[in-house]
């Protein structure tokens, strides 16, 4: 189907060059929920294929064949057509022992075998995003500042959470401040466009929620500081997803009962992380804690319903659902805004506040957000 072909084209391609078929298959299985993977047993075969379709990143084993991975990467980097492809060397040696060879051949990173799936994904994602983030340099200053500031603080949040340290809320507010200024001048669409192709889905989704939630607040006449709280809440609302395994977070099909329990735990994990910090405003915690609650009480984690959900929770759930439906994922293209809104006013009408949803729809029509 044409739709399937366009979706495949949107998913980043990763090339793996290694003479060991078991290792190649293990890498392919580790990445299958996030990327397309092409496998090559030798460098000659890989070189021919790279000219037909350049991958987003290539993994080359140090001992790929008689030529060797370092020489192959050096040749690739001298080729003007292939030079921009980020290259990761996989090796059994200590990183320090190959540092000079890495510099000489122009490799971008290395992974020492055996390596964890999380390390593989983190290394690939950072290289894929390097090109996306480099394009931000050509954007207007405010768009560039917003994108660079929010991605930086988002990455810091993950580090603080992993270390069990408080989330630096002042840094979050400072990163979101240019976003509020962009919304005030109705000049925020470059921010949404700039984050579209970012490979960190959690960041891209969170920034979209931050943007649309603060735009919602602006439309309702909230003050600058209140909009800033909404934007900060949007950026932090899914912070607990750092604890969710990639295979659950990015599973294309329906989650099993056990997997759904794991997925739902991201809300309580987010609350736990946010409550460690003593300067986070209560509205930010409400956004994080209640954006999956539903008016009929079928949401999670507290099964709140009706009057138990305040206006902020109702706004947050609308924005989160709309963003999730219209986000680009590795397993689905972005849904058209009108299609998403039809679902939200139809089969999801008993979950979402229809009064707020009508205002949200009008806001989108005025802003022409996709």
Note the overall shape. Answer: elongated
User: CATH fold name of the largest domain, please?
Assistant: Hypothetical protein af1432
How would you state the average pLDDT, rounded? Answer: 92
The helix fraction, in percent, is 55-70%
What's the name of the CATH homologous superfamily of the largest domain? Hypothetical protein af1432
CATH-defined architecture of the largest domain: Orthogonal Bundle
In total, how many domains does the architecture comprise? 2
Q: What's the main sheet like?
A: 5 strands, parallel
Q: Would you state the CATH class of the largest domain?
A: Mainly Alpha
| Number of helical segments with 4 or more residues | 17
Q: How is the largest sheet built, in terms of strand order?
A: 2-1-3-4-5
Please report the distance between the alpha carbons of the first and last residues: 24 Å
| Proportion of residues in β-strands | 5-15%
User: Radius of gyration from the CA trace?
Assistant: 22 Å
Order of helices and strands: HEHEHEHEHEHHHHHHHHHHHH
Class by alpha and beta content: alpha/beta
Uncertain stretches of 5 or more adjacent residues: 1-9
Number of beta-strand segments? 5
General description of the model:
The structure is a single chain. The protein folds into two domains: 2-129, Response regulator (Rossmann fold), CATH 3.40.50; 139-367, Hypothetical protein af1432 (Orthogonal Bundle), CATH 1.10.3210. The protein has 17 helices and five strands. It has helices at 2-10, 21-31, 43-52, 69-78, 99-105, 117-135, 141-162, 169-184, 189-195, 201-219, 224-236, 246-249, 257-276, 282-290, 311-326, 337-345, 354-367, and strands at residues 13-17, 36-40, 57-61, 87-91, 109-112. Strand 1, helix 2 (21-31) and strand 2 form a beta-alpha-beta unit. Helix 8 (169-184) crosses helix 11 (224-236). It is elongated, with a radius of gyration of 22 Å.
